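Technical appendix A lists one of the benchmark inputs used to test multi-chain prediction within the project. The record comprises two sequence entries:
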Amino acid sequence: MKILVVEDDKRTLSFVTRGLSEAGHVADAVQDGTAGLKAARDGEYDVVILDRMLPGMSGLDILQQLRSEHVRTPILMLTAMSTVEDRVEGLESGADDYLVKPFAFSELLARVHAIARRPPTTDVPVKLAIADLELDLSSRKVTRDGKRIDLTPQEYKLLEYLMRRAGKTVTRTMIMEHLWAIDFDVRANIVDAHMSRLRAKIDKGFKCELLRTVRGVGYVIDDPG
Amino acid sequence: MIRADVPPRIWQTATFRLAVILSLIFGLGSAAVLLALDFSMARAAQSELEDSLENQMAIMRADIDAEGSDALIEMLEGHRKGGSPTQYAYLVHTPDGGRYVAGLPADLPESDGFSRVSVHPATPRGGETTIDMLVLSARGSDGTFLAVGRETSALDKLRDSLHLIALVGGGGLAVLAVATGLVLGYVLLRRLERVSDVAARVLGGNQNERLPAIGLGREFDALVLNLNRMLDRLAQTMSALRQVSGDIAHDLRTPLTRLRSLLEDAAGSDDAVRREVLERAVGETDEILLIFNALLRIAQVEGGDRRSHFELVDISALVTELADVYRPEAEDLQHALRLDAQAGLYGRGDRRLLRQLLSNLLENAMRHTPPGTAITLRATGEDTRIRLSVTDNGPGVPAAEVPNLTQRFYRLDRSRSTPGSGLGLTLATAIAELHDGRLSVENGEPGLIVTFAFPRAPAPAATAGRAEPSVTVA
């Protein structure tokens, strides 16, 4: 993917661009807000990573300007300000996701992958399927190899979230933020506890494992075959 | 420049200045009254004098009409010789040369009307004196020139004594006012100096001292009372700040020290070990960030105005979802998480903060109790309040420690080794207060009951009036 990183802190910038290159992406770095807006407008990027505090023009202003010009490139906001208002403001202005500094690179990468070429929300599929695992969105029925699997409401939400991002790694904080609106520090391994139950229901006793743990990052569901 | 350490001089005090201003106002006022009085008295005396002269003149002219001017002169002479006292001076010139002059200059100009005349009669001792007179002159029906005069000195004397009274009285008043100002200023100064001294000592570090009463009136006492309350509050804040900085130093130093030694380790180890050591270093960093974020959140909740983000929150749904989210983890820790939630409870608040408050309470209960403990998340509604509580039947907390639980960084000694910011309940308390609620911790004997009570809001119209079935999940 071609990714634009607009960030004024040189260390963070090189940390992010190096990581993105290592992950096989092309990363362009811009340190100034005005130049960032120009690049984001003209560069035809797949994803833009935008710092909130920038010299020249703030990340939020760039975001609003781009969206008012109908530039629909997925945008991930980086912010050192972790207040709820800041996040809500960022999302309302048209950001696709946000990440609070300091962050783990794996978290950033997972979120970049998640927002890139996300299927438009208007295109509502009726059924999600990976290998022989099927999830019927209208009847909320889940089957594997034709066998009915009973899930709790939370497990169903989790599976749907994973299957909509099949093949992409989903981090624990993404799950907590997006499914349960838990955007604060949580000690308990609540995600892992749900995952082990979900895994026991959808993978145990079947020929291959669909739900995998990505060590130190999160989870991914995909068809190994 | 005002220097707080130099006591003010008496003439610098407000009371004294007020007294001076008051005496100035008094003085100006008295002067104005005096001028008005003087003017009207002079007018009254003048017109009385003129009236009496006109009266005398009328009598003399009547005498001439009745008996002729010679008879008038004779009568005046007779009066003088008879020694009858008179306030008046006379001059009569008949057309045929008859003359009578008493007390007026003989060469008085023969013009009609009032005039002012000064005469200089010889005193018995041979000197000369001056008498100011008002004179009315006119002609009689037979052409006789008539003049009658009267001294004006009585009026002048009256005015002089009036001026004296005003001067002495006004001056006395001014002196009295200034003196009163000095005395009051001195008294107030002394009392305020005591207050000021104490304030200086408090400023100097003696934070337990409080201001003495000023006295002199309720407004001063109320002022001192409020100032003392302010000092109490400041002392609390200062001690909290000292506590917090000490605790931050303590609680951050430990993970920072561990982080440092891990990094040193990593620098000195070979590649195989380094990776694992560095991963642990990242874990330590997360620990530090956790404490940091908790402090930041508390500051935001305590300091910021988040009420503008308040909305109607379905509390029943919120606790139900949280119980669902936490139950698997609780089971993994061999805790039984029970939900006892009344349906249809609504409150106004910040949804995320309420969620965070309950998460903190649940995590505390899960983390600080041994396996096998039952934890109950309960939501009950009263008429005007909602009570959300997390109860466990674990070992509880020694009674003496209960009040300390909501203090910043407070941790029981036995849980020092468990990771945690020690800020969970502090944050919960801050969130509770933001929602006009109260967080209370009590011994459940056994176990601990943490309750958050806050105002209940009416259910939205669509669901109002519906029956409220209770959801209990074991």
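Confidence is low (pLDDT under 50) at residues 412-419, 464-468 of chain B. Residues 95 and 334 of chain B are 147 Å apart (CA to CA). Comparable benchmark entries are summarised in Table A2.
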